[in-house]
Amino acid sequence: MAGAAGLALCGQALVVRGGSRFLATSTASSDDDVLFTYDCSTAEKKLQENKGEDGQPVDKGSDMILASTFSKSGSYFALTDDSKRLILFRTKPWQCLSVRTVVRRCTALTFMASEEKLLVADKSGDVYSFSVLEPQGCGKLELGHLSMLLDVAVSPDDRYVLTADRDEKIRVSWAAAPHSIESFCLGHTEFVSRIFVVPDHPELLLSSSGDRTLRLWEYRSGQELHCCHLTSLREPAEPWADKLDAHRQQLGYRQQLAFQHRVWDIAFEEGQGLWVLQDCREAPLALCRPVDGWWQAVPENAALKKVSACLRGNWAMLEGVAGVDVGFSGLYKATFDNVTAYLRKKEERLQKRRQNPPPGPNGQAKKTKPGEASLRCSS
C-alpha cells in the first residue's frame, strides 16, 4: 500500500512523487536529459468523471497519487490517484497516453510482463485489467477478494496473478482464468502489505506483513520456505554474500542501514545500487552501494547530485507530505472481548444492589439474607 511520497526506478529512469505531482528524470550523468513533471490536479477532466464504471456516483478526491509503477522494460509508467483515475504514460519520450476512470480507489497496480495489460487492485478487493495497447479501453473485472487488497504481482511468464489482502492471505490465480486458484500462501497473522516475485528465482515469492515478519514462499504449491522475524534480528559480524540463499531456501540478515532523516521510500537499481528518498531538502536522496561486502553511502556521484538538484528545485511537491501519516496502523484489526465487558458490568450492577437494596413491600429497604448476595452472584 503506497504512501504520500514515493520513489520508482527502472533502468536509468527515475520517478519521485509527492502529493498530486511527480517528476521524472534520468540517473545518467549527462546534462541534456529532459525533466518531465506532471500534476494530477490538472489532468484531463471527463464528462463522466462523476460516475465510476459501475455507473454509481463517485465523490471527488484530493488528486493525491496513491500508487505508481513502471512496466518491465520501462517503456510505460502508470499511476492511480485519489480521484479514482488511472493515468498511463509512455516514457520514451514522456507522454500522457490516457486518463481513465476506475470504480474505486486503488491500492496497487502492476503491468503484465508482456506489457499488454495493466492490473489494478482496489480497496474493495477487486482486480481490474486495462489494456495498454488500447489506452482508452475500459477496465475488465478479473478477480475479487472478500477484503481489501494491498498488493498485486504477476509471475515473470504471465501465467499467475498473485494478490495480497488485509485478511492475511496471499492468493495465486491463473492469469488466463482468474477464477481458477492455483494455491494460497497462508501463515501470516496480520495483513500482507507487500509481495514480490524474486527476479532471478521466478518460483519464489517474498512477502511482508503487519505481523513483523518477512516470509519466503514457493508460491505455486503455497509452501512457506522460511520466516524471518524482523523484531529479533542480529547483525552479522562478517561481510555478506547474498540476502537470499536460494539453495538452502532461506533469507539471511546481512546489515542494517541508518539514515539521519526520515526515509520515505527506497528503490534498487540494476547495478546493485540502493536509492533512498528522505525528508531533507538539502539532501533529498541518498545512494548506497556494496563495498567489500558492506553497503555504504556514496558521497560523490554525478547522477546523485543531478537528481538531488532537480528535487531541490521542485521541493514544494514534497513539503506537503512531510507530516502525512502513511503508516499501517489503520490496517490492524480491532479485537473485542464482549464477555469480559459483560461480566464486569454485571458485577458493577450487583455491587450497587448490595449497597442500595431495593425497598420492600412496606416501603422499607429489603434486608439481604446471609449468603443471598453470593448466591445471586454465582447464579
From TrEMBL:
GO terms for cellular component: cytosol; nucleus; tRNA methyltransferase complex. Belongs to the WD repeat TRM82 family. Residues 347-379 are annotated as: Disordered. InterPro entries: Trm82, WD40/YVTN_repeat-like_dom_sf, WD40_repeat_dom_sf, WD40_rpt. It comes from the Eukaryota. Keywords: Acetylation, Chromosome, DNA damage, Nucleus, Repeat, tRNA processing, WD repeat. The gene is WDR4. One of its GO terms (biological process) is tRNA (guanine-N7)-methylation. It is found in: Nucleus. WD repeats lie at residues 185-227. The lineage of its organism: Eukaryota, Metazoa, Chordata, Craniata, Vertebrata. Required for the formation of N(7)-methylguanine at position 46 (m7G46) in tRNA. In the complex, it is required to stabilize and induce conformational changes of the catalytic subunit. Pathway: tRNA modification; N(7)-methylguanine-tRNA biosynthesis. This is tRNA (Guanine-N(7)-)-methyltransferase non-catalytic subunit WDR4 isoform X2.
